[in-house]
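Researcher: Please predict.
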Amino acid sequence: MKLPLFHLSLLIAISLPGAAVFAEKADRNKPMNVEADALRYDDLKQTSVFSGRVVLTKGTILIRAAKIDVRQDAQGYQFGLITAEPGKLAYFRQKREGLDEYFEGEGELIEYDGRADTARISSKAQLRRYRGATLADEFTGEVIVYNNTTDMFSIDGAVPKAGSGAAPGGRIRAMLIPKPEAPAPAVPASDAAAGSGLRSSTTLGGEKK
């Protein structure tokens, strides 16, 4: 069912690195819609919990998860927790400003800190960039943290649980595809014909006798 929106404006910042720089600016003014199976809102605590096949859209932004928890502190800073369904990954996607490019990410858990303006994707974290419909860059790791203010992100591999005695086994992976070169400008047909034309001559078969 469609549900009213309370303190979910923070979710426009949940894009990929450098949302303030790369995010589609028009998204800020687009209406935000949330669909879910249930909503629990606490006005006193300033919290909203959307649960059950949650789908959030705002302009080019798309977020899918099992649950979205949002709270706001006394200073007005907002914090969000996006949780995936068991065995699945939470998903988000957003277009880059002025380009035919999209960023998308997935993870079992996505945490947003409005005070620090950072987002943390953890557990099977993935980050991808598309040029049109073509995959350009892809990153995977256990934890991906990005800072919208500094336009930087970090990726860490899996670490063993405390007291397990196991050695670190997870490693980050990155696939970076060079941006294709712009095609050379086409030569006008009239110029091509002029360059390949024959030069008139007053002689036949060689030099004039």
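Model: The domain at 2-180 is CATH 2.60.450.10 (lipopolysaccharide transport protein A fold).
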